[in-house]
Amino acid sequence: xxxxxxxxxxxxxxxxxxxxxxxxxxxxxxxxxxxxxxxxxxxxxxxxxxxxxxxxxxxxxxxxxxxxxxxxxxxxxxxxxxxxxxxxxxxxxxxxxxxxxxxxxxxxxxxxxxxxxxxxxxxxxxxxxxxxxxxxxxxxxxxxxxxxxxxxxxxxxxxxxxxxxxxxxxxxxxxxxxx
Length: 179
Fold this sequence. Notes:
Elements: H1 2-29, H2 32-42, H3 48-57, E1 61-62, H4 65-72, E2 77-84, E3 87-94, E4 98-103, H5 108-116, E5 126-136, E6 139-148, E7 151-161, E8 170-175
């Protein structure tokens, strides 16, 4: 009987932890910034016309020329901005196949965890490689190359700023030019 009770306690503890992990993963996957990224960049596969449609559907307004220039970083394309109850955000679609969501507030650690919660799980037919592609001062850029078998199908990139009081915390990018 003691073994049965110990087994039940162990089972309930494991189930409780799994439920908590599942709830945390769901919360990460539902965060507003990751929903912007998935909705504007990933589902559109960084196609400028589709990014524009998604940005407008999400309530973003086309950015003025100077602001758009900053978001586009010297490349051709379009940019949109939004200020709402979640904060300040920008979306940029470069004609070269790069879509980025600019997040001006929040915890870099939570934002990267949010992106990683969407990476393909083992056994899904997809795999990924994580690579830190640059680190300079307060900026760190990590790429997630996503494969189907051995074929690279897309690349997600996240740049984090660890600088206190930075006006830009994270850039989440979807890059089709590498696939």
